[in-house]
Amino acid sequence: MYYPPAPPPMYYAPPPPPPVQFYAPLPWPPPQRRHSPWLVPLICLVNLGMFVYEMYKNNCPSRNSKDTCMLGHVFGRFSFEPFDQVHWIGPTAETIRSLGGLDRNLVVHGQAWRLFTSMWLHGGVIHLFFNTISLDFVGLRLERDFGYHRFGLVYLLSGVGGSLASCLRIVQENLQSTVSAGASGAIFGLCGASLSELITNWTLYDDKFAAIMLLLLNVGVNIGLGFLLKMDNSAHIGGFVAGFFLGFVFFIKPQFGYTSSKFIPSYHEVQPTRRHNFCQYFLAVLGLVGSVAIFAACFGLLFNIKEIKEKLPDSVKSH
User: Fold this and answer.
1) Which amino acids are annotated catalytic?
2) DSSP letter at 276?
């Protein structure tokens, strides 16, 4: 009996596998922008140039013999005053006053510009040396992290805050002269801003203890030198307080994990980290309010707003 061959078996191919989905990892956040500091070296050069001009205007040999002036035979007109008269190794107080040194009586009688000009003058070589070292130590990092514009604003406003505190004499001390000068108030303002920057950007620091100890060491050394050398500690404290509040406003960094939307590809559906958290915004508002209140109070106390209003004509008072 004949049996026809069976039909060939039907092979059904399995369904094709689903397409492989590739999930690219999120890109790393771009490195933090680092600025090339140029304003701090420029400030140091300006301070040095102004000190040389101070010595030129001082002209010690015109009042004393070259044997009496320090290094009179070497520097001539640029020589220093006798050490028993000026321990800072520099010009006289009258020379500093004539070039824009801080004198409270002159400030309240129409020369308010001295609040700004005094921070560019120095009382001597020792004063200039310590201020330059402190400015490099604190200022270079801040300008590198935040740029010259924010650094410059904090530096100038802190210097004015220190000048206001110096005129108000918030620290009662026996100074050798009624004239004050120097960038110490602005530099202490940078120290205060460094402290507030450490607080508001707390999560970004790996070694927080080392950062705090380094900052406190710098502040402690400068305050100790101020009392030891009979410097104007009112300006130091005023500048520090002003810089502390200003640092909350100007020295804010994006929080850890933040990536700008322009660096996230469109195929990623992720919830980006916010640029700043609530605490940073709160401290910024607190710093802004505190800064405005401090400067308003200092200007009001220094220039006695009530007396100024009484001297105004009636037509101005009514408005």
Assistant:
1) 184, 236
2) S
Q: Is the dihedral of CA 282, 283, 288, 291 positive or negative?
A: positive
Q: What is the signed CA dihedral for 150, 122, 124, 236, rounded to 10 degrees? A: -70
Residue segments in the chain with a per-residue pLDDT below the cut of 70: 1-3, 6-13, 18-33, 170-177, 229-230, 256-273, 305-319
Q: For residue 171, which amino acid is it?
A: V
> What pLDDT, on the 0 to 100 scale, is given for residue 288?
96
The pair phi, psi for residue 17, each rounded to 5°, is -65, 155
Does residue 102 sit in helix, strand or coil?
A: strand
CB 107, CB 168: distance < 8 Å = no
User: Considering only CA atoms, which of 314, 170, 317, 309 is closest in space to residue 242?
Assistant: 170
Give the 3-state secondary structure percentages of the chain, helix then strand then coil, rounded to 5: 60, 0, 40
Whole-angstrom Cα Rg for the chain: 31
Q: Nearest Cα to 234, choosing from 159, 166, 302?
A: 166
pLDDT of residue 316: 45
Dihedral sign, Cα of residue 146, residue 147, residue 149, residue 154? positive
pTM: 0.82
Contact 123, 181 (CB under 8 A): yes
Residue 191: which residues within 8 A CB-CB, separation 6 or more? 138, 215, 218, 219, 222, 240, 243
In whole angstroms, what is the distance from residue 215 CA to residue 209 CA? Answer: 10
Token digits of residue 160: 């004015």
DSSP 80: B
